[in-house]
Every structure is written in structure tokens, then in C-alpha cells.
Design a protein that fits this description.
Length: 148
């Protein structure tokens, strides 16, 4: 006889939270090998859909505003680019690239690390100023269809 102890989870992570336990007729756990002793089976509900592009844009602009408001006075580029809002912008991934380029065009700032982190590309490795980097990234954006 086999009994399945189950639980349904609402989580979208990969944590196995329900276990199948083989039980013999006497109620003792059968041990046919370590691979059968604790086998995991998870039944999950569907994860919510990814946020729509408009929602991501709203999130991006809120994070960008928070980043600027909370770091405008910091002179250390390292501290500015490791701010939680900046890192969350990087976490948005490729959909954020056109918005970062738009910000770079309108109000130049240290968006270069975010762009390099997301695209894994450096369009101006020999640039000697922020203006050169800015122009190189804006040209790269035009070439790749990111018209900001």
C-alpha cells in the first residue's frame, strides 16, 4: 500500500515542500534505497504572469527616481552603483535598456555599469570621458533599435 502525503503550495520558488512516503501494510516506511526514501513531489499553482511592459516602465522610473534622490550627493561611483535601487534596475534586465538609454540622453548620469551588466557589451572600451561613453551608448542604442 502506498500513501501520499501531499500539500499544495502557493509559492513560485523551487522549494520542494511535499514529500511522498512509501508506507507498507504495517505502517512502516519502506526503504528500497536512499533515492526512494525521500522523493519529493510538488504540486504548484501557476505563478502570476510577468509584469506587463507598462508596469515594468513604472517600476523602472520609480527605482531611477529613488536612486537619483538617494545618491545625488554621494561622490563615490562604487557606492552609487551598488545602491539597492540601481541593482534592482539591473535586475529588470533587457526590457530596461531603452529606458536607461532614455535617462542617459535626458539626464546624463552613471548608467554605464547598468548597461554593461545587462547587455554584456562595452561600446567604448577606450573612452576617456563620460561624454564619450554617453555618445557611444546612445549610438549603440540606435544601432540596436533602442531609439530613446
Amino acid at each position: 500500500m502506498t500513501r501520499w502525503d501531499e500539500q499544495v503550495t502557493d509559492s513560485c520558488d523551487n522549494d520542494p515542500i511535499l514529500m511522498m512516503i512509501d508506507v507498507d501494510d504495517l505502517g512502516k516506511i519502506e526503504r528500497r534505497g536512499p533515492w526512494n526514501y525521500h522523493t519529493h513531489r510538488v504540486r504548484r499553482r501557476r505563478c502570476p504572469r510577468d509584469p506587463k511592459k507598462n508596469e515594468l516602465k513604472t517600476i523602472f522610473h520609480a527605482l531611477a527616481k529613488a536612486w537619483v534622490d538617494e545618491t545625488w550627493f554621494i561622490s563615490s561611483i562604487k557606492k552609487r552603483t551598488t545602491h539597492p535601487a540601481y541593482l534592482k534596475i539591473i535586475g529588470l534586465g533587457a526590457p530596461a535598456v531603452p529606458w536607461i538609454l532614455e535617462e542617459l540622453r535626458n539626464t546624463p548620469d552613471h548608467w554605464f555599469w547598468a548597461l554593461e551588466s545587462i547587455t554584456r557589451y562595452d561600446p567604448a572600451p577606450a573612452a576617456s570621458s563620460m561624454e564619450e561613453l554617453r555618445d557611444a551608448w546612445l549610438n549603440w542604442g540606435k544601432e540596436h533599435g533602442h531609439n530613446a
